[in-house]
Design a protein that fits this description.
The protein is 55% helix and 13% strand. By secondary structure, the chain is of the alpha/beta class. The strands form 3 sheets. A 5-stranded mixed beta sheet has the order 3-6-7-8-9, with helices on both faces. A two-stranded antiparallel ribbon has the order 1-2. Strand 1 (125-129) and strand 2 (132-136) form a beta hairpin. The chain is elongated and about 70 Å long.
Length: 308
């Protein structure tokens, strides 16, 4: 699952304008989910239609087939890989297969018990694709609905996480290029040795002045996640770029002498100029009147470069 280049560009455009970028992620989730739903319904139609002995096990035979990719088996059973990993501390193929089969059996029993106790409930889902048509009873319909719900939740979690990671570096590159910061004064290609253990950890971005590397942390957090600012302190960052910051966050960052930019603030991304001035990084002031033109030019540079 990847964030498309166009969505990344749209997110950065909105961030530079001080607008909420979240609609871009929601739109992508909707598109991915609807495409999955259509393909999944097609598979359900043909799986049930082609099954010669249509019993309660037809779904399990077709959609929990051990030959399927493990991610598909998990989703089809009503689980996702992250849940399995949290439960069993492993996503090895056999672990996923066993967990999925156990969960499906439990789910089916729960649904059957619910249906049996609700005698007045009548529900039939009719799926038709071209000339092929099948009916799903209440239990089968609820299983399909549950699978779709799990898939949407998995898409939602994955795409929200992917959004921040895929936008962080091009956002910083865009800011630096807008202010014409010399290329020798920034990089995204360095790694940090973490403590005495010697582990390497990827850093979002560095600003560089006279051989000194200033760590830059980017968090596209909302108001509901103020704790995300804590990463700036934990990683000893020198620059912190965020979507929104509370007044407490700002005071804490100032007290620790950490430069910050709140993209949704009145000044928005233009506070990056103050960051550059305070760190002594050379730059050229921007022409706001040509912002959109400059952003498009920069996108042509950085996104083409990322594809090479």
């Amino acid at each position: 699952m990847t964030l498309t280049e166009q969505v990344a560009k749209n997110i950065i455009r909105k961030l530079l304008k001080g607008e909420d970028y979240r609609i871009e992620i929601v739109t992508l989730i909707n598109a991915e989910f609807l495409q999955f739903a259509i393909e999944f319904f097609k598979e359900v139609v043909f799986a049930k239609f082609n099954d010669q002995t249509v019993t309660a096990d037809w779904y399990k035979r077709k959609f929990l087939d051990h030959e399927l990719p493990t991610k598909d088996i998990a989703i089809n059973s009503g689980l996702n890989m992250k849940t399995i990993d949290n439960m069993y501390n492993s996503v090895a193929r056999q672990v996923v297969i066993d967990a999925s089969n156990n969960h499906y059996d439990t789910l089916y029993k729960s649904i059957k018990s619910l249906v049996d106790s609700g005698e007045e409930l009548e529900l039939t889902l009719t799926l038709k694709f071209r000339d092929v048509s099948v009916d799903l009873n209440v239990s089968e319909t609820l299983i399909v609905i549950n699978t779709l719900a799990v898939k949407r939740a998995a898409l939602r979690g994955g795409l929200w996480s992917t959004a921040g990671k895929r936008v962080e570096k091009p956002l910083m590159q865009t800011l630096c290029k807008l202010y014409r910061v010399p290329e020798e004064n920034y990089t995204s290609d360095l790694q940090e040795i973490d403590g005495q253990e010697g582990f390497t950890r990827e850093i979002d971005f560095y600003l560089i002045k006279d051989g000194e590397n200033y760590k830059c942390e980017v968090k596209l957090m909302g108001k509901g996640n103020p704790e995300s600012a804590d990463s700036a302190f934990a990683r000893k960052s020198k620059v912190f770029i965020a979507d929104t910051l509370s007044e407490t966050n700002k005071m804490q960052l100032d007290s620790e002498k950490i430069e910050w930019v709140e993209l949704r603030d009145v000044q928005g991304f233009q506070r990056f100029k103050t960051v550059l001035e305070n760190l002594g990084i050379p730059f050229t002031d921007i022409d706001i009147g040509n912002l959109e033109r400059d952003v498009e030019r920069i996108f042509n540079e950085i996104f083409v470069a990322r594809l090479l």
